[in-house]
Specification:
By secondary structure, this protein is α/β, with parallel strands linked by helices. Helix content is 37%, strand content 16%. The termini are far apart.
Length: 413
Amino acid sequence: MGQLPKLYSFQNDMADHFLSGEDLLVQAPTGSGKTLGAIFPGIMQFSHPNPHYALQSIRYGVPMRTLANKFVEDYGSKDQEFYDWKSEWNAHIQTGEHPADPLFEGKLVFATVDQMLASFLNVPYGVPKRQDNINAGAFIGSYLIFDEFHLYPSSQMLLSVLTMCRMLEGISRFTLMTATFSRDLLHAISTELGATVIADAPGVAITDGRFSDIEHLHHQHRTWTAHNDVLTAHHILQALDDHTTVLCVVNQVDRAQSLYRDMADALPSDVDVCLLHSRFYRKHRQDKERHVTGWLGKPDPNSPRTDGRRKVVVATQVVEVGLDISADVLLTECAPAASLIQRAGRCARWGGMARCASSCRRYTLLTTKHWQVSRTLRHMKMMVYVRLARRHGPHLHHPSFKGRCSAITTSSG
């Protein structure tokens, strides 16, 4: 039998507030242990049920599949690590990639947020229509955790999640967690939902606030610089002069592919480079994620890396969450502040010094591509017009036909 995990003070605060019957809104730095802090009080409820509130299950929602995959690996079995852990608590997963629990029957289920919302709204994925009202019951009396909620589209998914929490007030418990949200927005959400905020006050240093006992956060030193240049392979090669690992994050897949090709043409013999974005087939992307984690993941003291080769990862936003990696240098295109903070969390993650550089000049895709897209849409419009003409020859110039052409080509774009 395992022991109780060692908790940081903010994780103990989360447990105390939750076990006192409060819902939580948590803002904590990347790599601080938010997941354990959220799950721990739920597991304690499984182990020692509260007579006033019988917790049925834990539903953990994430915005990306990679996060669900990682958490299932971490919580697939905690028999030897976690006090009083039972095999029926082993994590289940429900995502489009791994639809292993479509009815949310597990005690601990990690799922993408769209899967949770669809089930709650009686339109679940992968369930026969005659059973589409069953899944909503999986969230009644459950503990709902929504992680990285700053990544939810504010006008759609985030609003739906907040509405769901309001509808289940007093019936289910919830915790919302983020690393990057403004204090004003946190206060507004906490007021709306009646949740307790666990976060440092604005301007409080990590060494003086709630997270002061997390030792590795004290030794994270990141230096930010901004450059009025387009990010190029030349900048990556320059960064490799003084460092061994470089993470380059851009905002578009086409841009990442172009940068990767430029790197491959100018690659020194002792440098390995990997491209990671969302367009790879599932198996290839999983292989690449394992590859990147092997390069930049937390080093094992018992088997240090000794190949002596420098590593470069060129990626899109897919590395912002879900990958437990750390590089010496981050080179990034300009992005929203929340994204920049998430990207910086992939540097000096376990302490040490790192350099973060942001390119402030916008990269413009080749105009020939825009011309090709425009030409394709014009061609589609002409094809539709010709087909209508063949079918309704005498009425070809009627306004309704031109309107139908415009509607079809607009929706295609």
